[in-house]
Amino acid sequence: MSRLSTSKTQNHPPIKGVEEVTDGVYTVPASRVTSAELKQYLDTRYSGRWAVQLKRDLFRITITPSA
């Protein structure tokens, strides 16, 4: 099970306002983070294991469990 970290680790700032919808699916208001910041964070932490949709000013993030 993957968890989208909201705490500061290494040199990566936390993403504030993240809510878990179901296992591996999270939402965060687009007003809290830019798409570029979100992409950088996800690429660094979950390379190749994430997908994002933007709908009504809300990013919906899906993290695929690691093998």
Question: What characteristics describe this protein?
Answer:
four-stranded antiparallel β-sheet
Topology:
Blueprint: E1 19-22, E2 25-29, H1 35-46, E3 50-55, E4 58-63
Antiparallel strand pairs: 1-2, 2-4, 3-4
Textual characterization of the structure:
This protein has 67 residues and is of the alpha+beta class. The protein has one domain. The protein is 18% helix and 31% strand. The chain has a 4-stranded antiparallel sheet, covered by helices on one side. The longest helix has 12 residues, at 35-46. It is globular and about 30 Å long.
State Rg. Answer: 11 Å
Q: What helical percentage do the residues reach?
A: 10-25%
Mean pLDDT across every amino acid position: 84
Summarize the biggest pleated sheet: 4 strands, antiparallel
Give me the number of helical elements.
Answer: 1
Give the overall form: globular
Count of discrete structural domains:
1
In short:
With 67 residues, the protein is α+β, with helices and mostly antiparallel strands.
